[in-house]
Design brief:
101 residues, Helix Hairpins, flat
Amino acid sequence: MDEQDDVAAFVAEHGLETDLAHRVLDLESEVGEIAKEVNTSTGYGSDPDAAAVATDEVGDALFALLALAETADVDAAAALDESLAKYESRIASSGDAGSGQ
């Protein structure tokens, strides 16, 4: 995935390397910012149809996820392909993409 390479190059160029645990925490923080945007844009749930998320916040979360993948030595494109195949298999067997818990 070219995007993963772009993130890896950016991290290296700007000295943003960190350990895996901090990558996970950064991802959680960025996804939390998206959740906060949804909370505030809906008046904390009073108007669900008003839900909004800024593009840059999604970009921040995507950056954090790709940096995590790079730090964990996971090929993001291969991981996505694996997940899509898993969901296709679930849909074919049960009609639902969920794991069924």
